[in-house]
């Protein structure tokens, strides 16, 4: 195919992507536009060949990659040439499924062909096993062909069932198609209906969450329970755990780079961590024992102080003194009754003794 002539025509055509709209086209070439969409516009090059011109190179690369995956099947148009912003491919002559179902019923035979289409998508490596009915064409001989397959590849997240196809069929044809699936493969039918139910539940949950009002002040007060830095003991434990985690991850990376067995590295790290943990536990026990000894010493010291209070040399008396009552000895030596704050004194009996003629010097 003469690519120089293709590039001559495509250089005179400008396609610009628009936000949420079909592309904007400026055509100064003699080619006739057959149609346009969100990604590009299609021009007739010959009776059997068309040129799809894209608004950006990424969409062009994506479409070309998707078409190349299916070139060994009869489901996709043949690709003849590719440029930075265009793909020359076979013209598909037929009726799209949307127009067909407006006048014809969805037969079991047609449903089987649609299921086979999805199987082919899976076999050639498409991420999205799904397609819209307006991009599926029924040829005069009854075979199916698909166009606009760029969105079937390079996808991160897709629906796990052919949601686009089922939705585009409409409510009535959707039920008919699912009944045909159930008759052919009951397990596949159960799986698809399960995902449909899960989608409905997810939508209901989403609507409920979006309509609920949250008491932010109450939640703010509750979220204080998640704080850990304001309590020294908890903060220390959390920080220690964080350091252990980082050490473990970085050590594994370093050992893997050097070619060590990851399982052995993990075992060695676990053993090291267990040793550290046992040492910390031993330290905690020793600390508890020390605290217990200190407590016992404090109790002994307190008992000693209480005992010293009982055995006081106050008022000149060395010995035990019962503070609750006054003994005869207390009365004699003049100890104060602490209950009444007085000094009851017992007068010493004055007995006249005869010391002889030497008087006081011989007195005992």
From TrEMBL:
Disordered: annotated span: 276-364
Annotated Basic and acidic residues bias: 276-316, 325-352
Any coiled-coil regions, as ranges: none
Compositionally biased residues, Basic residues: 354-364
Name of the featured protein: Protein kinase domain-containing protein
Source organism of this protein record: Niallia endozanthoxylica
